[in-house]
Specification:
alpha+beta, two-stranded antiparallel sheet, 5-stranded mixed sheet, 198 residues, 2 domains, single chain, 60s Ribosomal Protein L30, Chain: A, elongated
């Protein structure tokens, strides 16, 4: 992905999202800051960059527009903790940094705006213009799981011994000699309704 200006990134994000909001700008700027922290001025070739994002929504659209990383390419994952934060992983060098907005970023945006400016408009402007070092903290981190375990082996398909559904990318667990999907091994995030959709 060739380098784009911030204006081009925000235009792409607005097209994908349907409009432009402060969180998209924050996500785009955070994406650029995370890549810079690993020494990338543009998306590296292949799947060298992996991003683990701690929320979804508008923020994620801006980050994806800036980095080119997407869930479909298996270069972007969501661990939803409700935080506008992301971990950037150089999968070749096994280095990772966690990039987070500084806690008072909204107040800093408001302080840069002319008196009487609405908070939304102040954030739209300030998030475009503030220096990255005033917007974000960058912390070197180590992942608890290996990059190999996170990425797994694409294309591996196994049918769950209990429910029979196909499971891709080594997302099974062995229990009593059987390969089980995570829902059968740990319990699903849903229950089956007694009479269809309710």
């Amino acid at each position: 992905m060739p380098s784009m200006t911030l204006a081009e990134i925000l235009e792409r994000s607005a097209q994908d999202h349907g409009r432009l909001c402060p969180r998209q700008i924050l996500g785009a700027r955070l994406g650029l800051a995370g890549m810079a922290a690993l020494g990338f001025d543009q998306l590296p070739p292949g799947k060298r960059l992996l991003i683990i994002v701690e929320t979804d929504g508008c923020f994620l659209d801006g980050l994806s527009a800036a980095t080119g990383c997407t869930p479909g390419h298996r270069t972007l994952r969501i661990e939803d903790h409700g935080k506008t934060v992301a971990v950037f992983v150089d999968t070749q060098e096994n280095r990772a940094v966690r990039v987070a907005p500084v806690p008072d970023i909204r107040a800093r945006a408001g302080a840069q705006a002319p008196a009487g400016t609405l908070r939304y408009a102040a954030q739209l402007q300030a998030y475009r213009e503030m220096p990255a070092e005033q917007m974000f903290s960058v912390t070197p981190v180590r992942l608890k799981a290996s990059v190999e375990a996170i990425l797994s082996r694409p294309g591996v398909r196994i049918c769950c011994a209990r429910c029979g559904e196909e499971v891709m990318n080594q997302r099974t667990l062995t229990r009593a000699g059987d390969e089980l999907c995570l829902a059968c091994a740990h319990g699903a995030y849903y229950t089956v309704a007694a009479s269809g959709c309710e």
